[in-house]
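Researcher: Please translate sequence to structure tokens.
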Amino acid sequence: MGCKVNSYEIEVMQQKLQQSGYKIVPFDSEADVYIVNTCTVTNIADHKSRQMLRRARKQNPDAVVVAAGCYVQTGGERTALDDCVDLAVGNNRKKDIAEILETFLEEREKGRGREAGCRFFTDETLEAYEETRLERTGGHTRAVIKIQDGCNQFCSYCIIPFARGRVRSRLQKDVLEEVRQLAQNGYKEAVFTGIHLSSYGMDWEGAKEFCPDYLLSLLEEAAGIGGIERIRLGSLEPRIVTEAFAKRLAAIPKICPHFHLSLQSGCDETLRRMNRHYTTGEYYERVQILRRFFTDPAITTDVIVGFPQETEEEFAATKAFLEKIRFFEMHIFPYSRRKGTAADRLSGQLTAALKQERSAQLLLLEAKQSRQYREHYIGRQEEILVEEKKRICGKEYWVGHTKTYVLGAVEAKETDSGLENCLRKGTVAGLLTDKIVVIK
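Model: Translation complete:
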């Protein structure tokens, strides 16, 4: 559940379990062990995590139910969830999942059952990067690669620094070894991700907030690995985008011009209350830098609606700013109150109804801008990395993403022998659906 980092970590846990002789089955199946890699970024994420854990227990009352991840790290004893969880595994113990399960099952064989209650495997301090290595992922074309963990930003609404700890960076040589292994196993696209990707290497420098040379050096080295055709980046801090950064990034041909710059609000006063460390003017400048160095880059973002004390005027300023930027996609989130954060103590908490009303307005704007971005591709030559065959509008298509992460479809022919994980180029003929362009 949750972010790309969680996605990477559940793949690592799956790999370790398979190496220990476990057979992975769909979550809806009756299994001996269920693992839920939880998320706690919002109240809704907490609710879904609890829901999935209870569902696991219901599917097989005799199974071992494991809660892992951020909800465990911040949740403490509440993770026991009315006695439906056997094991609670924190973020820095995920790599030990096979050993933890083995010990638990041995004890259960000796007669120590669930009456002992939920057992916790968490450490309060997360100081060193927990090195793990992935050889394969659930997909066949794109591999998510975690290069960093933790965050030092402490935005006033965010619980993640408490769930993930401070910034910890993965050694470049370890990242590159993993990329080489994945390339040898046929993956053509590498997606670099982290909790706060722009802080990569910051813990090595000490006092500096951002050290872009470390990230850029890693990307340049990864681009030289045979078999890797594309490199995509996870979420970036707007302040890392400078003329020098964008110029060096644009010199790497394999970089996908698809950039997620987290915004959260288009109002300076709201940004100040959020403890974001930039203004809307600075954000706009960074977007313009990317548009100077890349042709029609896909710019995506996150926006929190209904932050405490948000007035009608502040919301209007946010909406106007979003219209000015013209995003490819926006992820709209109603503000979620998180106990233990600075924003939780602010006065002027908005009602759920008002947050939903404002969210609805921005979702309409998002749909409009997203469609406009796809429409401007009509008549242009674009290349997709084919991921799967799908039936759309009554026809068979090979479907994949462009470098800007626009979903594209090429009509399948009877002579096609399987185009999965192949690059296919053609002219964008129009929109097949609101979300998919068709390439001839």
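Researcher: Any highlights?
Model: The chain has a mean pLDDT of 91.
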